[in-house]
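User: My collaborator sent over this chain with a note saying "see what the structure looks like." That's all I know about it. Can you take a look?
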Amino acid sequence: MTKAKGSSFYWGMRLLPEPKRGAMFALYDLARAIDDTADNEAPLDAKRQAIADWRTEIAALYQGKPSRAETIAILPYVKRFDLPRAEFDALIDGQEMDLDGGAYDEARLVLYCRRVAGTIGMLTLAILGVRADDYATTLGEAFQRINILRDVDEDRARGRDYVPPGTDLAATATAKLAEAERLRDSLDVRALRPALVMTELYRALLAALLRGQRRLGRFAKLRAVAIGLWKSR
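Assistant: Without extra context I'll predict from the sequence alone. Here is the result:
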């Protein structure tokens, strides 16, 4: 599923040995399923019920009784990697923010990034066996700001505008990438290899967006992967 969606995360996850690779694919599929709840074409009330159902399902997951394919797939990894339930709950909170709509100031944007992307960063580092909360959330915020910049027109067509007035998303994303690099300096870069690869893919995507391109070509992806691997040697 991850490869079929052409996700940048695939390039990072494929570098991992089992069982970490399996855990990351399971995490990605579960996160995508939750995210799709807010993005489908169902009526608003139906979406809110679907999100409430996901809360119930996450509770069932942590009771060892999941019923959906995505939660069944991730169940073996929850205890193995001590995946914090609070991060899944916060991810669902982020989907509710999507449904709530409304204007975004900088504080709300930071909260949104923490919920929809910082959560994935925290869960990813738990799987990688690295404890670095500030790094995880800072990198997640950088990635999400780049995602918002890429999808700004589509989001506005859906009635969602995540960009606070006067905010330069490219500049703030660049600053967050730099901050994450500083935080990374004290960490084991080899353990963070997938994160470094994804960082370079997002850095390349940001450069492409500033050139007016919404996607990375295969050569650009391979180059970014090579840079990430070099930085994690």
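A starting point for your reply to your collaborator: The first helix runs from residue 8 to 13.
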